[in-house]
Write a structure and sequence with these properties.
This protein is α/β, with parallel strands linked by helices. The protein has eight helices and 19 strands. The strands form five sheets. Strands 1, 2, 3, 4, 5, 6 and 19 form a seven-stranded mixed β-sheet that branches. A five-stranded parallel β-sheet has the order 8-15-9-10-11, with helices on one face. The chain is elongated and about 70 Å long. Bound molecules: flavin-adenine dinucleotide.
Length: about 300
């Protein structure tokens, strides 16, 4: 059987595309390694309309049910290759599937610090998305790891909630950030850069309580430093050191990219005929559940329109 559309990725972008395409009566298959994608990792989502508060897993469950109730098959497999001939041939493990159109919704992977206990403390004081979780740190002390635009804008946002923000960076100045953000950070009194500092240890019993830094990174406020001098007391730490988009398949299909993110038109088309993309894997400026859903919806609709045009 040839599907009208194969969606690679079962996160919010892929799931929403499936809902729209199925409601346009297309034959759709979703193939995703992890159902729900990154959304499942969000311990508390407070910025998805209609939900003041929900766990990421609750949203995953509801999206999966909605997609399945529309008769769409979801296969928990990894796509290893896609070849384009008359149709697209998608290889996932030992299986091969064919489709008229492809949607790449493979998301991106946030870079991690590479220190011990990172996984265990994620959601317990350790975060990877200031836009998502800054609101939990009203009047608290937080650290932001990184020194690029993502880290500086995260620090600026956090400074509106937290009483103190340590911007922990391994270099001696912000050479990789836009000068405007550097100027803005300098103006904000509760942001303190800790240069020449690398995080070497995450410390805390059931949640993050302190971070150990390379010796030079010591804050100016004495009570935030423990007796050993290079452990900084924090209620939370935001890791903002970039992300790696899942664009390997796109590369194989000759899709145009910018900094490894897929470039798309406003209809979510790529430059490669029949290949669409949506969500965190694209060069969109806001990587969130709601924007991934929005792009997925447009992609589902665009595929439908293109198939209708081709039928005429
Ligand atoms: C800890 C955390 C908390 C967050 N909190 C929030 C929040 O509160 N609010 C908010 O709006 N956003 C939040 N986000 C961001 C949000 O989760 C992402 O922006 C969103 O999930 C992106 O959706 P997506 O569908 O583009 O990609 P993803 O959710 O990353 O999904 C990608 C999908 O592609 C699959 N995949 C990748 N490669 C392959 C392959 N080769 N073959 C098959 N499948 C593949 C994955 O398994 C997954 O199913 C958070 C992110 C994290 C990490």
């Amino acid at each position: 059987m040839t599907y009208d559309l194969i969606i690679i990725g079962a996160g919010p972008a892929g799931m929403t595309a499936a809902i729209y395409a199925a409601r346009y009566k297309l034959k759709v298959l979703v193939i995703g390694k992890i159902p729900g994608g990154y959304m499942g990792e969000a311990h508390e989502v407070c910025n998805f309309p209609t939900y003041e508060k929900a766990t990421g897993m609750e949203l995953v469950q509801k999206m999966v049910n909605q997609v399945k109730n529309l008769g769409v098959e979801i296969k928990t497999e990894e796509v290893l290759d896609v070849k384009k001939g008359k149709e697209f041939i998608v290889s996932a493990g030992k299986n091969e599937y064919s489709a008229k159109k492809i949607l790449i919704a493979t998301g991106s992977k946030r870079r991690s610090l590479g220190v011990e206990r990172e996984k265990e403390l994620t959601g317990k004081g350790l975060h990877y998305c200031a836009t998502c979780d800054a609101g939990f740190y009203k009047d608290k002390i937080v650290g932001v790891a990184g020194g690029g635009d993502a880290a500086l804008t995260a620090a600026l946002l956090l400074s509106k909630f937290a009483k103190k923000v340590y911007l922990i960076y391994r270099r001696d100045k912000f050479i990789n950030a836009e000068p405007t953000w550097v100027d803005e950070v300098k103006k904000v009194k509760n942001i303190e850069p800790l240069f020449n500092s690398e995080i070497t240890e995450l410390i805390g019993k059931d949640k993050l309580e302190r971070v150990r830094l390379t010796p030079k990174g010591v804050p100016s406020v004495e009570e935030d430093v423990n007796t050993e001098g290079n452990e900084v007391v924090v209620d939370g730490l935001f890791v903002e050191i970039g992300s790696i988009p899942g664009s390997v398949i796109a590369e194989k299909l000759g899709v145009k990219m910018k900094d490894n993110y897929i470039m798309v038109s406003k209809n979510q088309e790529t430059n490669a005929g029949g290949v669409f993309a949506a969500g965190d894997v694209t060069d969109n400026p806001l990587k969130q559940i709601v924007t991934a859903c929005g792009e997925g919806a447009i992609a589902g609709y665009s595929v439908y329109k293109e198939l209708m045009r081709e039928k005429k």
